[in-house]
Amino acid sequence: IMTEQKLNTASDGPWNFQDMDVAYERVEGNGRYKYIAFLGAMIAYLCHMFFLFALPFFLKYPDVECIKNGYWQPCTEVDVCVKNPPAYRYLAPHEFNFITELDWLCRPDLGSLTASAFFFGTLISTLFVSSLGDMYGRIPMLLFGTLGNIVGIAIIVYFGNDFACFISSGIIGLCTMANNANSFNFVTDSVPEKYREIFPSVLNICWAIGEIFLALCMMTQIQWRTMCLIMIFFSSLFFIPLIWMRESPKYHFHQNNILKAEKRLRHVAKINGVEITGKILLALPSSSANQGAFIEKIKAMCCEVNMFIRVACVAGMFTIGMLIFYATSLNLEKMSGNMYYTAILMAFAEIIAGGASGYSLKFLSKKTASVSYTHLRAHETSLHLVCRLLLEKKK
Description:
single chain, elongated, 3 strands, three-stranded antiparallel sheet
C-alpha cells in the first residue's frame, strides 16, 4: 500500500495523501448524488427478485376435483395420481400456473427441477459475479443481470413448455446474482462511509416491498403468463435508467484510473452543488487494490488461517440463513393459513429486521449485532473476499 512517505518521495513530485472517503466528504454537499446512486442500485435489485418470489406461486398446486361415485368431488393429489379416477379437473384456469398448464400435478419432480435449475444458476453465478464486477464494472454487470432476467422470462412466456421452464430458470438464476451482488457493491462504492451501514438496509427493505407487491398481484389469481409480462414490463422500464448510470469514483480509483475518478468526483460535486477548485484526488491508489486473479485470491484466503476461519464462519452462517429463508419461501403453500398472507407477513418481518440491523451496527459490537446477509455483502470490496466488518479488529 502506498504510504504518505512513499507518495511524497515519488518520482513525479510530492503528493498529499488523501483517500476516497475523504474525497467523498469533500464533494458531499447536499448529498443528492448518493440518492441517485441508490435509486440505480434499487431498480436493479428489484428486477432480480421478481422471478424468485413468483416461483412458489407458479408451482402452487391448485384445487382439484375428480369423479367419485359418479359426481365431481374435491380430491387430493393421491386421489388423482394413485387411485386413477375416471376424470379430474383443475378448479383454477388453464393458465393459472405451471402445474395447471403443463399438467405437472402427478410429476412433482418437474417443479423441483425447475427450482433446482434456478438455484444452480445462482450457485454458478456467485462464484464469478463479484470478480467480473471488479474487472468490467458494476454497471455492465447490472445491465447484464437485468437484461438476462428479461430474456429468461420472455423465453418461458413464448415457449411455455417443460424444457423452456428448466432452461429459463437457470438463465434467470445466473443473472439474479449479477444484480444482487453488484447492487450492494455499487451502493457501497458510491456513498460516503457514514452511510454504508444504512443504505444496504434500505435496499433490503425495497426487496421486501417488491415481495409484498408480487404477493398482492398473485392474490388476485392472475394467470402466470400475465404475471410474467408484468415482470418484463417493470424490468424493461428499470433497464432504461440503468443505461444512463455511470461507475462510481471509487471504482475507477481502485482500477488505478485517477483521471476518470477525478472526473467522476467533479461530476458528483456538480450534482451535489459543491464548487471545487484544484485537485480533489491528491493520492495514488493502492498498488495492490486490484491485483491477483480469482484463483490466486482463493489460494491466499485458504493459506491464511485467520482468513480461512472467518470465511468459514461467514459461509456457515450464510448457508444456514439461506436454507431457512428459501425453504420457507418455496414451501409457503404447505404452511397453515393463506400462503399470500404468509408471504406478506414474511416481507414485513424483513422490513423490520432490515431497518433494525443497519442501526444496530452503530451501537453494538460487530460480533454481537444481528447482522444480515445484506450487510455482509455490502461490505465486500475488490480488496477483500470477505466482508470488512468481520476483518476489523474489535475496538
